[in-house]
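Supplementary Methods. Inverse-folding protocol.

Structures were first reduced to a discrete structure-token string of length 190. This string, shown here, constituted the complete conditioning input.
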């Protein structure tokens, strides 16, 4: 996947790109208090947990405000988090099962040729002959390569691996992906 220079794209007041980009991105879900000093275990959703450093503000899904991170450390398959003003298990426990978010405009830049998944969902997909195939509705993570799930106007969904052989161009400014198809990819009946 790739990321193009989006500095020419206008942003709304919340700092979200106007191409239907969310203003906030989920980074994890708080699970349970840990120990006696106000730590709470967080299940990690983000591919960039290193951006969760002391001082960062994390926003709660309930809309009940933000938490300022004071400390974090790796623990099993997640992170143990400490927040300013919450120093007991009882105090931090009130946030159990809250999903935490960061502002989209605070996310780290990606190298040339990489994209965040949410940037691709909703884009129109056309083949290299210019025929519109449909809209990206989901991206499957398969291990070998991500796969675009495309919903056409009619017929079954189209699955296209996110590899250079098939994905020829991703144009965020024009909300379009250009792909090259091989026989059998469209599940054509007939």
């Amino acid at each position: 996947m790739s990321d193009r220079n989006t500095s020419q794209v206008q942003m709304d007041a919340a700092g979200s790109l106007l191409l239907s980009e969310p203003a906030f991105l989920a980074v994890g879900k708080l699970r349970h208090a840990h120990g006696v000093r106000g730590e709470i275990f967080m299940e990690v959703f983000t591919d960039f947990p290193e951006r969760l450093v002391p001082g960062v503000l994390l926003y709660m899904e309930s809309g009940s405000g933000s938490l300022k991170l004071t400390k974090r450390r790796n623990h099993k398959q997640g992170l143990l988090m400490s927040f300013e003003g919450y120093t007991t298990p009882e105090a931090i426990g009130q946030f159990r099962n809250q999903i935490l978010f960061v502002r989209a405009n605070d996310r780290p830049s990606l190298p040339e040729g990489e994209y965040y998944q949410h940037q691709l969902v909703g884009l129109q997909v056309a083949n290299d002959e210019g025929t519109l195939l449909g809209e990206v509705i989901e991206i499957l993570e398969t291990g070998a390569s991500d796969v675009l799930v495309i919903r056409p106007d009619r017929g079954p969904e189209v699955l296209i691996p996110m590899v250079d052989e098939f994905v020829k161009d991703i144009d965020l400014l024009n909300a379009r992906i250009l792909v090259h198809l091989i026989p059998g990819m469209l599940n054509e009946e007939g």
